[in-house]
Write a structure and sequence with these properties.
It is a single chain. Helix 1 runs parallel beside helix 3 and helix 3 runs antiparallel to helix 4. The chain is built from four helices and no strands. The chain has one domain. The protein is mainly α.
Amino acid sequence: MEVIKPLMGVYNMFDRMKKNDQQCPHIVSRLEALQKLVAFVQERQSGQLSEDVSKALEKLNAILVSANELLTNFSKKYPVTQMYKSSDYKSEFDNLNKSLTDAFVTLSGALHVHQERKLDEQEDKLAEQTRKLNEQEVKLAEQEDILQRVESKLAYETRAYYCVLQ
């Protein structure tokens, strides 16, 4: 899923609107955090994402498309020089900020659960390998015992054969 492209589009729009700190006080920092998180997910986990993480990314993508529409409408209605004077979009930007925060928390939680599952799988594999190693050690000990008995028997028979020859 391509989330970085809409994320960067929205981020770039907000970056151009830096004068409008009253309308979008935390949105840029939220977008930066989301961008880092999404980049991490796509870089490290591509192709092996859990359903929860995929759903969180889809939700984030929908929010970003909505944010892009909001920003497009906002920038058409208010020129850059007058953005800080507008208050029509205040509640929409507040809702966007809440949605981005929610998406960040959801994605972070989904990633945490995904990582926890992977850790559990790794621990199960490790336990299975430890069990197999223990079985191999027991078999090796049995083989060493058998070999020792065969060597002992062979040494006894060799001595007996040597005695017979003399």
